[in-house]
Amino acid sequence: xxxxxxxxxxxxxxxxxxxxxRKGYRVLVLDRxxxxxxxxxxxxxxxxxxxxxxxxxxxxxxxxxxxxxxxxAVWWFGEDLSVxxxxxxxxxxxxxxxxxxxxxxxxxxxxxxxAGAEVRERCTVRSLLQDDxxxxxxxxxxxxxxxxxxxxxxxxxxxxxxxxVARQTGPEKYHERPPLTVVYYSYWRGLSPERRHLNEVYLxxxxxxxxxxxxxxxxxxxxxxxxxxxxxxxxxxxxxxxxAIAEAAPALAREMADGAERVDRFRGTADxxxxxxxxxGPGWALVGDAGYHKDPLTGQGIxxxxxxxELLADAVDRVWSGxxxxxxxLAGYERTRNAASELIYEFTCExxxxxxxxxxxxxxxxxxxxxxxxxxxxxxxxxxxxAEEFFAPDNLLAMLGRLPADALAELTGTKGI
Length: 417
Prior knowledge:
Its EC number is 1.-.-.-. By secondary structure, the protein is α+β, with helices and mostly antiparallel strands. The chain has helices spanning 13-22, 47-55, 59-63, 101-115, 164-169, 230-235, 237-248, 250-257, 301-320, 326-352, 358-369, 371-382, 387-390, 393-400, 405-412; strands at residues 2-7, 27-30, 72-76, 82-85, 118-120, 123-130, 136-143, 146-157, 173-177, 181-189, 198-204, 207-214, 218-226, 261-262, 267-269, 274-277, 280-281, 284-286, 292-293.
């Protein structure tokens, strides 16, 4: 009998298992993969995520793998409008990292094992066990051709946006948005050295291009299109990928054509729904993408998973240490998760929808010409500037007040009066 069974050993599951094991709980982690194993990902870890990794004693291990620190960002909103800067430090961390998932996930799995969690690879969970009241009491899983059952006081789904735990418990979904994009990416070596510490995003019409430096002197380059373009994109992934980059980022396209080498296959997905799920119920909980998922444009997924793993571990510990009741502690976990994510969720959905509203477009013009505003913009994305502070009416009005008079008049409808 375990205290916790965690389904999924990647960015949410292994940190949760590690944190609970460090608190003295008996934890079993099950994953169908054998690590190291790649997966579709933005790779991007915000400074807020790295600050947690440092608190857990793992940041030095990750930096020792040779992942280049990202210390500058540029977002292009057209050929002649760009926002350049970087987020203020978060708890003393002034960089981002974008590790290959073969490196990061293996590191996290090892940390869970070191903490005392039992991690079983090549094990696929088939179903949940439930008692007569419907309470989840364990799992049935297959491991190396053999069927097994395991029981626990709590089963946690850390098994991604298509979570089996969520499917079988049926939690409420809310704040849903349909999939907005289809994304494909690959890895490129031979780009200019200045890209080794730079994250670039191009938002041009109905195209989004992202360039992120990662391990082994390569950059991940992604090309996203509207979700409605999915069937067309799939008909010629490489052709449409290069066409999007040539139209949205012609200088980058020339650099790729002039001696750069693609070093891996194309990966991608259109399964990018935006939603929240109620993350708990009798005998079960959800963490990471299983409980909350959004478009990858702003690179939040890994950092959010680590935040929520920490929140859930603390909530469970309060329940089992007798300091708080289950419903109160887990409802608090949900409220805190939502409060920390709701504004960046809305911003991400708007930006990923290829159609910024007029006020957002004018705010972009402000942050493009005022460095302090630019750094705060990136800080809002990175978590070092609270989103509620950045989007506070007084702050937005102050930023709009820095617009040229004609632009402000156009926005407010007073031009020519």
